[in-house]
Amino acid sequence: MSDFMPSQEQISAAFEFAGLPVPAERLAENHTTYAETLALIRKASTPGLGETVPALGFKAHWD
């Protein structure tokens, strides 16, 4: 399996999907941290189940 390193556009799309607006400047400043975190999540995903959605994409509420 090759190392996965998401692009800035992919990270932006993940935040957008989760409804978490992140300014472009902040995304650029923290790209390495966000990319490494998403890469770690992907690496820890259970083989055979396909890719699992990171927790940031989970929209739960108690209402």
Give an overview in words:
It contains 3 helices and no strands. It is an all-alpha fold and 63 residues long.
Tally of extended strands?
0
Number of domains: 1
- Give the distance, in angstroms, between the N- and C-terminal Cα atoms: 41 Å
Q: Level of helix content?
A: 40-55%
Radius of gyration: 13 Å
Find the structural class using helix and strand composition. mainly alpha
How would a textbook summarize the main sheet?
A: none
- Coarse morphology: flat
Average of per-residue pLDDT values: 78
**Share of residues in strands:** under 5%
**Number of helical stretches of at least 4 residues:** 3
SSE run: HHH
Q: Runs with pLDDT <50, length 5+?
A: none
In short:
The chain is mainly alpha-helical.
Keywords:
single chain; 63 residues; mainly alpha; 48% helix
Helix-strand blueprint:
Layout: H1 8-17, H2 24-29, H3 31-44
